[in-house]
Amino acid sequence: MAGALLALPGLLLRSWASGYIHKDTVLAVDGPFAQLRHPLYVGSFFVGLGLVLAAGRWVLLPAYLALFVLVYGRTLRHEEAELDRRFGSVHAEYRRRVPAFLPLPGRGWASSEGGTFKLRLYLRNREWEAPVGVAAGFGLLALKMALT
Prior knowledge:
The chain has 148 residues and is mainly alpha-helical. The chain has one domain (2-147). The chain has 5 helices and no strands. Helix 1 runs antiparallel to helix 2 (39-55) and helix 2 (39-55) packs antiparallel against helix 3 (60-97). The radius of gyration is 17 Å and the shape is globular.
């Protein structure tokens, strides 16, 4: 249950962020992107952490953390370079002003440019697949628990 309580905010953050992403055409700076440059990755981190906690195997924690840093570290560097190439000084200014993973204390979560969450973007970005995958993961853990 504790793992699910940790994973749920991660899923909500991912869902919220996906409603602001116009992939490859507009730099997302509203909603959670006004506070974090990578809210999808932060959400994924908490989802994964929740699954590790639910599994109840503490040996998985260092493996998860190492794998997360390895995979998302490379992805992040590639994505930042691509956004720099695509959006130039606009992305450089955004990168200067908005932290990558930890929101600054005292800053509200309101959109900086007045954009709003769009369900059509959430659906187009196929973010509904994340809760389905997480439910499957927790379902497998519940099945394992029931069988042992």
